[in-house]
Amino acid sequence: MPDAEDVRRIALSLPDTTEKIAWNMPTFRVAGKMFATLPEDETSLAVRCPKEERNELVLAEPDKFWIADHESQFAWVRARIDAIEDEAELRDILADSWRQAAPTRLLAAHPRLGVPAR
Questions:
Q1: pLDDT tens across 26-85, in order?
Q2: Among 21, 37, 62, 87, which is most buried by a count of CB atoms within 10 Å?
Q3: 39 burial type by CB count under 10 A (0-12 exposed, 13-18 middle, 19+ buried)
Q4: Residue 24 backbone class (left: φ over 0; alpha: ψ -120 to 50; beta: rest)
Q5: Structure pTM?
Q6: Going by DSSP bridges, is the β-strand pair 44-48/76-80 parallel, antiparallel, or unpaired?
């Protein structure tokens, strides 16, 4: 089962990613744009997710995903780290969020990063 250190390690392995403390929590940024955070006591993570997709995630897996009240107007979703199946799922979640924040030049340089396997 993944933990906060796995989140940190995987997030920082993504191209041009840095960690910065903001709002008293670790945040992960690609080219300066935030794509993940480790809020509260680092038992969950927040990632970018289009609103229509996040609603489907929350309905499909409410024990894993939820929308924090203060983030309801934004395209972010929370995930309980201990509910994430394994490191591969965590990597998929982080890479998908990274793609949503990454600039065009990085997306062009890493076209398969975060694209679900078919």
A1: 999 999 999 999 997 899 999 999 998 999 999 999 999 999 999 999 999 999 999 999
A2: 37
A3: middle
A4: left
A5: 0.93
A6: antiparallel
Rounded to the nearest 10°, the torsion over CA 116, 10, 7, 103 is: -70
Element (DSSP H or E) covering residue 65: strand 65-66
- Both tokens of residue 11? 């997030």
The answer to whether 103 and 85 have CB atoms below 8 angstroms apart is no
Find the length of the chain.
Answer: 118
Residue that the structure tokens 């903001």 belong to: 22
Q: In the numeric block, which tokens belong to residue 7?
A: 């989140």
Any residues with CB less than 8 A from the CB of 77 and at least 6 apart, and which?
46, 47, 49, 54, 57, 58, 65, 66, 67, 71
Q: Name the residue type at position 103.
A: P
Amino acid in position 100: Q
